[in-house]
Amino acid sequence: MPSPDSPVPDRRRPLVVAIDGPAASGKSSTAKWVARELGLRHVDSGSLYRAATAAALRTGVSPSNWTEASVLKAAVGIRLEPGETTFHPYLGDEDLEEELRGKDVTANVSLVAKMPKVRAWVNERVREAAEGHAVVVDGRDMGTAVFPKARVKIFLIADPWERARRRLVQRLQRAPEDEEIAAEVEALVQRDLKDEAQTQQAADAILLDTTFLTQEEQVERIVAMARQALKGPPES
Ligand code: DC
Fold this sequence. Notes:
With about 240 residues, this protein is α/β, with parallel strands linked by helices.
């Protein structure tokens, strides 16, 4: 019988599918799709780091003067509002979704994600959203720090060139030029470096390299793993 702290998956609890990986590895779009296929809830932990950053930016205090306390104070009014399949961060009555993807938030979010008390705050919000529900969660440390007992753990990777190309196709809605991809690779490598310490592959995660997979194929594989996990016998 596993101890309460053991990372052995517990089949009596609702299913948790934890998807981690570096920037632009397709975690959130894949997680959303997997959740839709399986009728589960999706929680994007990165959106909470982004929401805390957006709230801190709105205070007008320069990011170089942000402290854990000032960011947490700014983030007090943030809540996750359940949507059809995914949760949306709100600040009071305002849906932050669009602001979260803006340049200012992206430029400053790594700083916020390095703050241990902000990490504890995000982890608590994610666990609350998942309470009592089967979920697909995505981020950098879902399979390690937040859901060490998750029954399905995936670590998504892809070649930086391919990650950059996909991101540009999404942003520009056209096939990008090689020079554009090269510049985006540079930006991605810098972001990977900034987030390196927070990005953790669980020892029992399945590494899925999506460089040569379509999104449909990666979704199919993860859905198959989740269905397999649901079939497993309950643990006593
Ligand atoms: O996945 P994303 O780009 O939306 O993540 C935004 C930032 O939050 C990025 O700096 C990585 C960080 N993050 C993290 O440190 N831990 C998570 N579980 C999720 C995101």
